[in-house]
Structures are given as structure tokens and as C-alpha cells.
């Protein structure tokens, strides 16, 4: 009958707890900040914990790839069932219920949930050694509110199916090796209030519609190939039709430098074009002096 298991911030050394797979009622699993290693998932039982709505494996030593089959089995993250709090009756006669309290990392901040809504769903696999691509099956978790895969070694592109997570409020994919462009489908996430894609290998232009207009430079910094309004970088079109990132500020400084250099060069050239013959050709010099003598003499006479 176990629904909440929170043993985070300990020194537990072991692998993913497949021996708990028989607990079909499990809703909250928090194992963060331990010494867990190995891979996520149970090879013999790919479908585990269909009622799971909160899982936190952050700050461990877990490696391998994200298991697509395990993500698919979490039915509670696919649709909202009800809006009641998780509560546990410890006195049947008096009808008193205990409402669980736990701390989680949301939108980059460490906060405490005093009451856990059954509609609340969260996946936090940050600060591990996960690698490989993000599986497309994650797009089936349409009731997911928070997703944190930061500080891993995840490769590949950002899957466009993340645009199907219409309830998503926080997405953190920072400090990985993600490449390619930012999918245009992410602008459909109307409730997205926190986004961190920094320190990856993303390229191309940053979308300029939807919630993307509310995100700051810190959400995209550390991606040398990205360009757009948020980074103050223009996206120039090459002969191949692809977009390249250019720094507007650096371009302005370069243009100013060439402007002043051209002025100096023009002055030097013009000076020697006019004064050079006077210096090196004696007859021209005498003719120039005679001309000014005549002009000054005329102006001085009454």
C-alpha cells in the first residue's frame, strides 16, 4: 500500500530499486543525493509504477540512456485524474488525514510542497551521467508539469514531441550536449514559465513568439551557434540558405573601427596628393607662393 517513498539526501549505495516494482500503488519516489549507480529501469519489468507522478533521482551517479519503455508505463503522467491532495487516513474513527510534505527543485529553486496535488507531476534526473538521446516517448506524458534533465551527457537534438506537453511549466535541459535547432513546436507550451537550454551545442535562431518572448539571455547562453533577439545576435543568411549567428555589438564595433580608419587613410592620402608636389617640385612651390602673394596683396590694398 506504499504511496510515498522519500529517502533522499542519504548515503545509500546501490542500483535502481527494481525490487520495489511490485508496489503498484507508488506515487512519489525520491532518491536524490545518494550514491546510486547503474542504469534507470528494470530490464525484466519494463512497465513499473503506473501511478507514479513524482520521481527524483537527481545528484547520483546513474548512467546509461533514458529508458523509453519505462517512461511509457507511467500512466499517471499522461492524463489528469483528479484534483485532490495526496492524503493518508491514520485515524479511521475520527476521519483525520495526514497530508504529505516534501521538498523538490522547481524552476531552478529549492522549494517545499506542503500539500501534494494528485495532478502534480515531476521528473528530475539532473546531475547524473545519463547519455544518449531524449526518447520520443516522453511526448506521451501530456500531464507532466516539471522536467529536469540538466547536468548530464545527453546527446542528439531536442525532440519536437516536447511541444505536446501542454501542461509543462518548467523545462531544464542545460549542461548537456544537445545539438540542432530549437524546435518550433516549443512555442505551443503556453504554461511554460521557466526554460533553461544553456550550455549545449544548439544552433540557429531562437523562436520569437509565445512564451519565448518572456525568457532572458540566461536561458540560451553557452550555445555559440544560437542567434536571436534574446542573445543580441543577428541571424545572417549564408549562400547555402543557412543561418549563422553574428554579434550585433561586435559588428557595430567593427564598423566603427573601419569608419575611423578610412577617415584617417583618406586624410593621409589627400594630404600627400596636395602637399607632395609642393614639397618635391620646386617650380610648383614657387608658383604656389606667388599665387598667395598676389591674393594677399590684393586684399591688403585699399
Q: What's the SSE blueprint?
A:
Layout (H helix, E strand, L loop, with lengths): L3 E3 L6 E2 L13 E3 L4 E5 L14 E3 L4 E3 L4 H6 L13 E5 L4 E4 L2 E5 L2 E5 L8 E3 L6 E2 L13 E3 L4 E2 L15 E3 L6 E2 L13 E3 L4 E5 L19 E3 L5 E5 L5 E5 H33 L1 H19 L2
Parallel strand pairs: 1-3, 2-4, 3-5, 4-6, 5-11, 11-13, 12-14, 13-15, 15-17, 16-18, 18-19
Antiparallel strand pairs: 7-8, 9-10, 20-21
Helix pairs in contact: 2-3
Element-by-element helix/strand order:
EEEEEEHEEEEEEEEEEEEEEEHH
Please work out how many helical segments DSSP would assign: 3
Biggest sheet descriptor: 7 strands, parallel
Second CATH tier, the architecture of the largest domain: Alpha-Beta Horseshoe
Q: How large is the share of residues in beta strands?
A: 15-25%
Distance between the termini: 120 Å
Instruction: Assign the CATH topology of the largest domain.
Output: Leucine-rich repeat, LRR (right-handed beta-alpha superhelix)
SS-derived structural category: alpha/beta
- Count of beta strands: 21
Shape: elongated
Fourth-tier CATH superfamily name of the largest domain: Ribonuclease Inhibitor
**Lateral arrangement of strands in the main beta sheet:** 1-3-5-11-13-15-17
- Count of discrete domains: 2
Which percent range fits the helix content?
Answer: 10-25%
CATH C-level category of the largest domain: Alpha Beta
What is the mean pLDDT?
Answer: 79
Radius of gyration: 33 Å
Q: Unreliable stretches, pLDDT < 50, 5 or more residues? A: 87-99, 238-242
Amino acid at each position: 500500500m506504499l504511496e510515498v517513498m522519500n529517502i533522499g539526501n542519504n548515503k545509500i549505495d546501490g542500483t535502481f530499486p527494481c525490487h520495489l516494482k511490485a508496489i503498484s500503488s507508488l506515487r512519489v519516489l525520491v532518491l536524490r543525493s545518494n550514491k546510486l549507480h547503474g542504469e534507470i529501469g528494470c530490464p525484466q519489468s519494463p512497465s513499473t509504477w503506473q501511478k507514479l507522478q513524482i520521481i527524483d533521482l537527481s545528484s547520483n551517479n546513474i548512467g546509461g540512456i533514458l529508458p523509453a519503455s519505462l517512461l511509457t508505463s507511467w500512466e499517471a503522467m499522461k492524463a489528469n485524474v483528479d484534483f485532490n491532495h495526496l492524503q493518508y487516513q491514520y485515524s479511521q474513527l475520527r476521519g483525520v488525514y495526514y497530508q504529505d510534505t516534501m521538498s523538490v527543485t522547481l524552476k531552478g529553486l529549492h522549494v517545499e510542497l506542503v500539500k501534494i496535488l494528485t495532478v502534480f507531476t515531476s521528473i528530475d534526473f539532473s546531475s547524473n551521467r545519463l547519455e544518449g538521446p531524449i526518447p520520443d516517448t516522453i511526448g506521451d506524458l501530456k500531464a507532466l508539469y516539471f522536467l529536469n534533465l540538466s547536468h548530464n551527457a545527453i546527446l542528439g537534438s531536442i525532440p519536437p514531441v516536447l511541444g505536446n506537453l501542454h501542461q509543462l511549466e518548467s523545462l531544464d535541459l542545460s549542461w548537456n550536449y544537445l545539438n540542432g535547432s530549437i524546435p518550433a513546436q516549443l512555442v505551443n507550451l503556453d504554461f511554460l514559465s521557466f526554460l533553461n537550454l544553456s550550455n549545449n551545442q544548439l544552433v540557429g535562431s531562437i523562436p520569437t513568439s509565445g512564451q519565448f518572448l518572456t525568457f532572458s539571455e540566461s536561458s540560451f547562453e553557452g550555445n555559440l551557434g544560437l542567434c536571436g533577439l534574446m542573445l543580441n545576435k543577428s541571424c545572417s543568411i549564408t549562400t547555402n540558405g543557412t543561418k549563422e549567428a553574428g554579434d550585433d555589438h561586435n559588428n557595430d564595433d567593427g564598423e566603427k573601427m573601419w569608419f575611423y580608419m578610412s577617415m584617417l587613410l583618406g586624410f593621409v592620402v589627400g594630404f600627400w596628393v596636395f602637399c607632395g608636389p609642393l614639397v618635391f617640385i620646386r617650380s610648383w612651390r614657387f608658383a604656389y607662393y606667388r599665387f598667395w602673394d598676389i591674393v594677399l596683396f590684393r586684399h591688403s590694398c585699399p
